Amino acid sequence: MRSSSRALAAVALAAAVATGAAACSSGSSSSSSPSTTTGSSASGSSAPTASITAWIVTTAAAGSPAPSDTAVQNLATAFNKAHPGDTVTIKFVQNDAYKQQIQDAMTAGNEPQIFWTWGGGPLQQDIKAAKVTALTTTAALSSSYLSQFLPSSLGAVTVNGNVYGIPVEGTQPVYFFYNKTVFSKYNLTFPTTWAQLVSDVAVFKSHGVAPISLAGGASWTELMYLEYLADRIGGPSVADALQSNAANAWSNPAVTEALTDVQSLIKAGGFQTGYTSLQDNGTNDTLVTSGKAAMQLMGDWDISSILGADPSFISSGDLGMAPFPTVAGGSGNAADLAGNTASYVSISTNATPAQLAVAKEFFQDELASSSYAQAEVAAGEVPVTSGAASDFTGNMASFDTTIYNDVQQAPNFQYSWDQAMTPGVSAEMLTDLSKIFDLSETPAQMVSDLNSAATKDAA
Q1: CA-CA distance, 129 to 201, in Å (whole number)?
Q2: So what's the pLDDT on residue 121?
Q3: What is d(CA 65, CA 116) in angstroms, rounded to the nearest whole number?
Q4: Residue 320 burial by CB count (10 A; 0-12/13-18/19+): exposed, middle or buried?
Q5: φ/ψ of residue 379, rounded to 5
Q6: What are the average pLDDT values for consecutive 10-residue runs of the chain, which has 459 residues?
Q7: Which among 153, 160, 176, 288 has most CB atoms closer than 10 A?
């Protein structure tokens, strides 16, 4: 799934966090050397000073930082000011290039001291390659510090009881976002079951309205349907087995049923004409806000994306948000979530002792601070720190409160499969899924392909 940057949104949101902002750094070499001098940090401890670099993923154009980028840059600026002699330099890396860029850097041994991760399978591979610092042992981050984050937010970066990453951006569960006016016009309420959703598809089509907007030009937008259907049908154990590359896990009947349901929805005309080529560039949002489509399944960043493009749609109360429907006979809980639990930063094992000390202080002093939580909210994020709900204000407050409460109460929050699974499985899954959605491949073919990919990655 895409990086959070719910923040491709509003100029108004950018202004809210821009006060005192430094320009986005172009970065520095990740091989920064620590100073040999000794200084006193703001916390009063005496330790060698050091310079470190942090790579942060962005989806914003160069020179046009997203609000969340500005919030992170301000975080480093505040830390540097409070810790004379220590320097945290932020380098923003484009989302699409990041995975290859960080792996190339790790292979060459010149990765940054702090690096972005989505957790899951790729992080586990980096841990096996001894590239990631165990924060609960090597860096000795206390349990009281970690308890400041919502429990569900650390699952994707917890391996064998050790935590390897700290949330740096907000939580991003996936919901249906819909046009209340369109639903009301045809005397419909948002469906709570899959059967009702399919029934509503027929109603919308009969009135010339595209039932669901889908930016199918990127397979991750299609993946969200498979994730939720598999959970609603078979429960959390389905994704757990898939993500562990268990033998023949893709042969689970819940996966086949989910893929079959997807293709049935397509054949019923569930998506707009040309859905397989539409990119996630805002047009998919416009279809919903204009009433040309009734709804869209998307991560919670969609709220601020819509706010940036059409603020009146939110201020008027036309935007609705609803959980993914249940499936008759399924064993999944209706309160289960899918999406990105958060985005994270980890510390590289190539950090010197002095650099490790500075990275630890940066994590402890800044990432769980109330001021950063407030900046995240202003940037359109939903923080995963305790007590953040008191910061929710304005047009997005009701949405943020619902998301925050849902994340706290969810029986299971499955991490986006393309991030959680091993690289070979993830790549094959997205390739096959695009064929499922253009009806050029059967569920049985995809199951066979993915079982083979999982066997290779597990070897």
Answers
A1: 48
A2: 81
A3: 17
A4: buried
A5: -85, 5
A6: 44 34 32 35 56 91 80 95 96 88 95 94 90 92 93 89 94 97 98 98 98 95 98 97 94 98 98 95 93 97 84 94 98 96 95 96 94 90 92 90 95 92 93 98 98 94
A7: 288
Instruction: Tell the CATH topology of 11-171+341-386.
Output: D-Maltodextrin-Binding Protein; domain 2 (3.40.190)
Q: d(Cα 340, Cα 360) in Å, to the nearest integer?
A: 24
pTM score: 0.83
Q: How many CB atoms lie within 10 A of CB 175?
A: 26
Round to whole Å and give the CA distance between 415 and 426: 13
Length of the chain: 459
Write out 89-102 in H/E/C secondary structure: EEEEEEHHHHHHHH
Angle subtended at Cα 148 by Cα 19 and Cα 239, rounded to the nearest 5 degrees: 105
CB 53 within 8 A of CB 29: yes
Q: Which residues contact 271 (CB under 8 A, 6 or more apart)?
A: 210, 211, 212, 213, 214, 216, 265
Spell out the SS3 assignment of the chain.
Answer: CCCCCCCCCCHHHHHHHCCCCCCCCECCCCCCCCCCCEEECCCCCEEECCEEEEEEEECCCCCCCCHHHHHHHHHHHHHHHHCCCCEEEEEEEEHHHHHHHHHHHHHHCCCCCEEEECCHHHHHHHHHCCCECCCCCCCCCCHHHHCCECHHHHHHHEECCEECCEEEECCEEEEEEEEHHHHHHCCCCCCCEHHHHHHHHHHHHHCCCEEEECCCCCHHHHHHHHHHHHHHHHCHHHHHHHHCCCCCHHHCHHHHHHHHHHHHHHHCCCECCCCCCCCCCCHHHHHHHCCCEEEEEEECCHHHHHHHHCHHHHHCCCEEEECCCECCCCCCCCCCEEEECCEEEEEECCCCHHHHHHHHHHHHHHHCCHHHHHHHHHCCCCCCECCHHHHCCHHHHHHHHHHHHHHHHCCCEEECHHHHCCHHHHHHHHHHHHHHHCCCCCHHHHHHHHHHHHHHHHC
Domain 173-339+416-458, CATH: 3.40.190.10
Residue ranges per structural domain of the chain: 11-171+341-386, 173-339+416-458
Assess whether the region 11-171+341-386 and the region 173-339+416-458 belong to the same CATH fold.
Answer: yes
Question: Is 324 within 8 Å of 176 (Cβ atoms)?
Answer: yes
Tokens 């397989």 belong to which residue?
A: 276
DSSP bridge pairs for 91 = 26, 55
